[in-house]
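As described in the Methods, two query proteins were run sequentially through the folding procedure within a single session, without resetting any intermediate state between them. The first query and its resulting structure tokens are shown here.
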Amino acid sequence: MREITPRSPIAILLIVIVIGYAAILFIAPLVAVVQGAFAGGLEPILNTFRDPSVVHAFQVTLVLSGAAVAINAILGLTTAWVLTRHRFRGRKLFDTLVDIPFVFSPVIAGYAMIVLFGRDGWLAPPLVPIVFALPGILLAKVFVSLPFVVREVQPVLQTIAPEQEEAAATIGAGSFTTFRRVILPEIRTALLYGVVLTFARAIGEFGAVAVVSGNIEGYTETATSYVYRALNDRSTVGAYSVSVTLCLLSIGILVLMSSLRRRLNEQER
């Protein structure tokens, strides 16, 4: 598409509105959080990150988000493959259900997990607790980030002609070799993009995690849950400090996403 230099007052006004919209919703909150974190100097921030509960909250967040990424990378890739390469009764319904986390309230999702996996739930495990424990947090993160790998990989798989796989089979390549040599190079960038989106969604989740975990300090508290508790406890420096860290992590993820998106667009062209 040809770029057009704005000349009319309406075009300039539209640009000003878009920039102002972005500044109010994105830039201003980030500046406010950074200013609040450094209002008392650097020492209060360092004291926040010396707090064992903060260290534990980040450990829980990063470890379980990584586990959610691993699960959804494998199962998401498998789901995209099944939806693309196989035809079966109920396929369209299943394809639609993949998008449920996009429209389903995380709070309701957390409550549904309590109903299903709580002490008296329909699917309550006999030995290992899920609700108000680390497995519940993992389940919540997996649920909210489920669609990203599927929806990034699926369109790329649809562009790969089955003839390539058939040609590999005719020269003696097995299923795994065909996937590794033919399919994976084509979907690699889309898969990485879906993984990055999955990690970003998992690490920032609050609603479902807050409900299903119980926010037990030093046990099931995540970084986002800590921010909520710190605000309630009037520990604004702690809340701001952890928020700034999460914002910086999000910016890093955004930069990586932009790089992967450019590579994906180049592959599509």
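Immediately afterward, the second query was submitted; its sequence and tokens are:
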Amino acid sequence: MKRIFLLVLSVILLASCEKKKEKDVTLTVNKVSPNQNKEIVQTNHSIYQFKVEDLYGDEFDFSKLKGKKIMVVNTASECGFTPQYADLQKLYDTYKDKNFVIVGFPANNFGKQEPGTNEQIAAFCKENYGVTFPMMSKISVKGEDMHPIYQFLTEKSKNNFADSEVAWNFQKYLLNEKGELEKVIPSKTLPTDPDIVSWIAQ
């Protein structure tokens, strides 16, 4: 009789344990949002997600450039391509009232050709080339300390256009009116090149 009682008790406890496991599994599954996988896949492929600091320490919000075509260019004050500042300013003067803007990012990644402070860079650009287009604080455009905005510009997984590498100073990235990357232009190509001008004007 005692054996029968112990057997029945064991069966009851086992059944109770199995029900608890089922309940625990159900609770665990319910904790997972049905949209979780969708949320992980979604990525912002627009430059509008970025806020950076300009040469004067003020915040520059790219979302304020919605509806404009954008040229992003990494600059340097002691480079063979430095005279391109004049062409960049000329291009900006011509098209700034036609939904186009240039945003410069000084960088010291190539030949240490941008050694100055933000204040020195601002003075150099204004005094030598009369630069009035937006210039940001000095950043890194390659390597382990690459700025997030250049991670976006150079990685297809982030920009949904193409992988690229910044090869030298004055490489140009062209983004459309939706803030999406459309073209990567090498350093040696002048800002006033017909391909760039026709892209802006179209």
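Residues 16-42 have pLDDT under 50 and may be disordered. We note this only descriptively and draw no conclusion about the first query from it.
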